[in-house]
Design goal:
Elements: H1 2-13, H2 18-31, H3 33-42, H4 49-60, H5 67-76, H6 80-96, H7 104-113, H8 119-132, H9 137-144, H10 149-160, H11 165-175, H12 182-201
Length: 206
Amino acid sequence: MEMEALDILFDDLAHPNPYIQSQAFMAMVRDWPQQALPRLLGLLAQPDIALRRASVRGIGAFGAAALLPLADLLMASTDSTIRASCVKAYAQVASNQPGIHFPETAMRALEEALSDDSPVVAVASVMALGQVGGQAVPLLLRVVGGDNPAQAVAAVNALAQIDDPAIERTLRDLQNQPQLDSYVRETLESALARIRDLQARQPQPG
């Protein structure tokens, strides 16, 4: 009977209404965490895009419990759709729980995903690291200085969203690198302008 109730929740996950989907995966987290998470991970191979996206959102609701299982699946899978979905699920976890600490295994999985053969996986991993925040700054800085302009642009934009006073200074230092791609340099200038604009809007003390 219990498994029938869980099956109903998985039926609801396929519902087109995002609210019904959310209610379903929140009930999974609350009542069937051990049974539901492996099934959600299994749906990341699902050809139905809407159901796959709902599964990514559902995995994101499991928080810390999803981090190591996602790393295992990401490292083991040769399917770029599954790997991209794992990376997007990491972004969901970090977005749902700002400041959550990613264990070394999860960070290593995301680091490997940066050099994935699939451009979708590689760029999505930069976005996920941006959601991870301060813990991911060293990796993102390495990407900015790398030889993949599309990733570097994504990394600059990700860094600009992280609330860390040291980032502005670091982005300025990166501007001085002579070998920097012109598009990346343009993105750096735009990111620094956004940071200055945000600072100007902050209420001044006293």
